[in-house]
Model the fold of this input.
Amino acid sequence: MGTVLRAGVSLTALLIGAPIAYAQDLRSPVAGASATEAGTSDPDQTQLTDPAQPDEGATADDIVVSGLRRSLESAQAIKRTSDGIVDAIVAQDIGKLPDTFASSALQRVAGVAVTRGGGESAGVTVRGLPDLTTTYNGRQIFTAEGRYVQIQDFPAGTVAALEVYKSGLADQVEGGIAGAINVRGRGPFDFDGFELSGSLNGVLSQQSEKIVPNGNLLISDRWDTGIGEMGLLLNASYVGVNFLDSTREQSLVIATTDGTNAPGAQAGLRYPDAQGNFLGYGNRYRPSVNAAFQWRPTPELEIYADGLYQGFRSKDYNRWMFVPIFGDGVRLSDVTTISGTDKVATATVSGAVRPEGYTGSFNGKTDTYQGGIGATWKKDRLQISADVAYTDSTYTANLVNVDYAATRSPVRTVAFEASRDGGPTQTFVDFDITDPASFISRGLYQELTVVSGKDWQARTDLSYDLDLGFLKRLQVGVRYADRDAARDFGNLYVNNEPAGIPLTALPGADVRTSLPGFTYNDVQRNKAYAALTRDSIRDNLVELRSFYGVPAGTPPFNPPDNFRANEKSYAAYGQLKYGFDLGSMIVDGLVGLRAIKTKTRISGFSRVEDVGGAVTFPPIAAATEYTDYLPNVSGRFAFTDKLQLRLAYTQTRTRPNFFDLRPNTSLGQPVVLAPGDPCLTDPATEVCVERLRRGGSAGNPDLKPLTSNNYDASLEYYFSRTGSFTAAIFRHDAEGFLATVDDRSAPGLRIARPVNLGKTRLQGAEVQFTSFLDIDGLPDWAKAFGVQANGTFIDAKGDLQPNFAATLNNEQQAFPGVSKWAYNVVALYERPQFSARLAYNYRSKFVQFYSLEALDPTAHAVIEKGRGQLDLSMSVTPLPNVTLAFDIVNLLGNPLQRYRQFDTGDSFTRQVLYIERAYSLGVRFRF
Done:
């Protein structure tokens, strides 16, 4: 039972760079401003040539610096003169960020990886680390009770730049061991005057066969008044995606043939004991609005106010069919094996438990608001800034599943490794799964989750340019945050399978075969089956609740599942900039320290079951208090104006999530077995004891923050205005990642509880190359060709939870979510009237998670195979202010493939997931 929310793909492609300001500079410089104007540099740094600056001696025959070229040149200047290790992506024109969602654009950055599914990209990691600080214009932002915001919640049309900080600085908001991602919105002073721009496009998803509109509109202006210059900006965006992800999967429990279950076959052959098909359809959209006001009453003072609204709406329709290959009377016949192995290739299955599943109607809704005001005053060497902001975010998830079962257990022919893409397939004999009469009701499951978070944050920063020899600048600042978080959860389940009620007999039932999946090929013949429609569930909820005999309305909240939390943090930092000449070499860098005191209190309700069976919910609370000290030291050695070396050491840390810190314990629904399940007749077997345990979860208020010591070195060579080659090595020594350990000490229960793990080491290297064909003698059309390429190698190993580690000689194992190899290659062509980009992104295999399964004494990993994705983007500009754009995402249409080894060292495919291929056609305008 439960909701399956998938993350995933987006539109095409190009990594480009943007000017970046320090985190305390909450208002960005005017577009195209130099690093010095942005406050990221001091006069001594300008000894290095800034390729973003126009060459006053340029002739009419020189290349015009505009669009992409200007962005690349600015990126080179910022990367070269920044104090930290930073990469960025900028939308040079409004709405022109190279992907639909901001998270999809990040996959083009060296060292950044994403997960795919559900029509978008999510799960952003930087150099293998998953815990990031997310800020919007330098302010911390989050969703509901979480620590960060999902980057895909930012539509590309509202983003001016994405700034990825790979090494921390003392003046940055703490919170992420992986670094920080700052999403920079636009302000009215980014433009010279009146600005009206936007975009409109339609996106067609191939599997769902649906088209959804996307649009963005920006209006901005600035005026000279009697009390100074003022500007006002309003930017609104609507991004929708309509997807259908299709998954073939099979059990992680690997059974063995014997004389009883396969009398005509060799004993000792291995096969997964169940198969399944999941069709995840989603209609999701994200409305977003941001507004900004800027006022410059004097040349030294700027006052600003801005606000952001982020929305998320999801109407999902999920269909799951579970096909057991187990049961008291299960028989395998016509067994074939995979050549050279003891693995079953195909078989005819009879006497197994009947197929079952659910049809789910899921509604999700997020509303996030952030507003703030601030001011920056700069006079001679002194700059003072202050900012106050308030954030309010609520997420509501409402799920209703109608469980079904087949009317009987049909004979089925199964394959465990299909010839194309691998994984399971099945064909039913004399049983029509498209016939509504083939299914009966099994039960009704309801779930309601409401999580929320509120935050007041305030900060003051001071920067003073020194005149003390090699001491160049002093920065100090303080920050205060007061954070509230809350969670309410309720669920109900009722099983009515013994009544044998036809699915078509449910109130308002509309049972039909619709929205077939697996459209890329015919490997899986069961592309769809008869199921209740989403609307027939939602439109008849009152009647369905009455029919199943459950209380009217949404499920009441369960006290042990709820909590209330408050967290206060007090931070102060100091940072010193140094710089000097060493012969012909320029040396500069930072030395800083950030101190943070954190006070957290979480309250909830515990669950106590008395001897007589009475259950009570006494209140429970926990409080923690600790102080972190986070140093940073960096140096930059400029050997020439083209070649430089960076060295950096930082400490970072991440607080545990509030949900993991809660002091209470909650129980899931009791286990309900299907007729014919072997655990009904022999519940004392090892497998059945485990299957019959009632699940639950608990928090751990004694969790410690995750910490990491980070070491970076980067060698950078800039050989032209748009050409560079950089190579970096890095190492993260992390400690305290969380794992969930199952507590089986209570009879019949399995309580999942988070614990801190030991040490994890991630080390690796990055290389990046960028260049246009700016070669003397080539015609202009040839100089429009360019390439961007980057590659990342990461070796990541860490401690597992104790019971898993004990099965692997207590040796460190591959860290989940980290590919050893990843690379991007982007071929591009850029002319004023036409541009095209072909982008290929690849990441090698990586561990999804580790698990202990029945019949397998070793904790093996579920591994996702290496996969590449190809995206195409083209645009034509027939008029100076109008551009037509066409994009294709996931040209290859190749699936995600996951597998797991079992006790013999062999493996079976776990899942084959076909994500959407999307086509987009639209127009952009700017006046």
Observations:
- The two ends are 52 Å apart (CA to CA).
- The chain is about 5% helix and 55% strand.
- The longest strand covers residues 439-468.
